[in-house]
């Protein structure tokens, strides 16, 4: 999940995958705006075969939070 998650983030945000880590978030990544966030969550849903609730969508604002949401859904 780690490599796949980071690659999806990098592709969606248009950043180098090497710049991403657990602390990467909407607060510290200029490219991660509201439109990018919507695209990111849609990409995650498609790639991992999951559906996220509106509450989860709003909480998934960092790599760590996304990882927790995916784990809660049993994503591999």
Automatic annotation (TrEMBL):
User: What single Pfam family name could you report for this chain, choosing any that match?
Assistant: PP-binding
User: What protein name is recorded for this chain?
Assistant: Carrier domain-containing protein
What's the source species for this entry?
A: Chthoniobacter flavus Ellin428
The record's Gene3D superfamilies line, in alphabetical order, gives: ACP-like (1.10.1200.10)
State the superkingdom: Bacteria
Domain Carrier stretches: 1-74
The record's section on InterPro entries has: ACP-like_sf, PP-bd_ACP
Q: Which PROSITE patterns match?
A: CARRIER
């Amino acid at each position: 999940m780690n490599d796949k998650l980071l690659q999806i983030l990098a592709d969606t945000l248009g950043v180098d995958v090497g710049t991403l880590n657990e602390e990467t978030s909407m607060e510290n990544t200029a490219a991660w705006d509201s439109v990018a966030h919507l695209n990111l969550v849609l990409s995650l849903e498609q790639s991992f075969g999951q559906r996220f609730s509106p509450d989860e969508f709003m909480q998934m604002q960092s790599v760590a939070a996304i990882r927790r949401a995916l784990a809660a859904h049993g994503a591999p």
